[in-house]
Amino acid sequence: MNEIAALAKGSFDGASWLITARTGGVSKDQFAQTNFSLNVGEDSKLVQVNRSRLAAQIGKPITFAKAIHSKNLAWVDEKSSDEIAEVDGLITSSKNRAIATLSADCATVLIFALGVKIIATLHAGWKGMSDGILPKTIYELRAVGAREIKALIGPTICAECYAVSEDRYREVKTKVPAACFINKQNEFAIDVRAGLAWQLLNEKVSFDNVLICPFEDENAYSFRRDHKTGRMASVIWLNN
């Protein structure tokens, strides 16, 4: 059995994470090879093979978020299903289940609260970022006792590749001005990574980056580049 390839992988002190690349799965054609989404038009049986392969690789069942570009969050435990609908963030303190969000240009954010041993994974496009899914998650973690929190901003489309309308630019600028740029092509543009970084700095959360723009990297899925395409997974789990 092939191993699901990683765009990036690593660990916090007590949790591990992996962001999938496009090789090692069974997806075909424009979805090749490691699509993890059941909602992009691919044969669901192939997606389930990819999901099962990834779960076997990390040694835990995985709960996936079915994102809707919201700031909705759900807490996961060992009895949770393999997919939770209409949420863009998952949080858990269970060592018996991993959690994952999917993306293909939008950012993902992986979070670990050290003392309380709680993890989270977020899907954050321009809307989730500007609506505040990241600060909301930090608030939830602190409400249950988290003091030291670390984060990782995953692959996300860069401002040079993410031109937007003037209306969208101005909408985001009212909420997250740090995400708004005029790019080198003199276009209105959104830098989701910069916006999320600004929010983390405001929350006094230390963070790192996976500096990959999916639009520019053929090993990543990009909706803006390819339109009909798959989704990569950003998965995090607590170590036993």
Secondary structure tally, helices = 6
CATH topology: CNF1/YfiH-like putative cysteine hydrolases
Largest sheet at a glance? 6 strands, mixed
- Which CATH architecture? 4-Layer Sandwich
What pattern of helices and strands is seen along the backbone? EEHEEEEEEEHHEHEEHEHE
CATH homologous superfamily heading: CNF1/YfiH-like putative cysteine hydrolases
Global outline: globular
Range of helix content? 10-25%
Structure notes:
- This protein is an alpha/beta fold and 240 residues long.
- It has one domain (6-156, 206-238): CNF1/YfiH-like putative cysteine hydrolases.
- It is 23% helix and 29% strand.
- The strands form three sheets. The chain has a six-stranded mixed β-sheet with strand order 1-2-14-7-3-5, covered by helices on one side. The protein has a six-stranded mixed β-sheet with strand order 4-6-9-8-10-13. The protein has a two-stranded antiparallel sheet with strand order 11-12.
- A hairpin with a 3-residue loop joins strand 1 (6-11) and strand 2 (15-20).
- The two termini are 25 Å apart.
- The model has no long low-confidence stretch (mean pLDDT 97).
Short description, anyone?
With 240 residues, the chain is an alpha/beta fold.
How do the strands and helices of this protein lay out in sequence?
Elements: E1 6-11, E2 15-20, H1 44-58, E3 62-66, E4 73-76, E5 83-85, E6 89-92, E7 98-103, E8 107-113, E9 118-124, H2 126-131, H3 133-143, E10 149-153, H4 166-173, E11 180-182, E12 188-190, H5 192-202, E13 206-209, H6 223-226, E14 232-238
Parallel strand pairs: 3-5, 3-7, 4-6, 10-13
Antiparallel strand pairs: 1-2, 2-14, 6-9, 7-14, 8-9, 8-10, 11-12
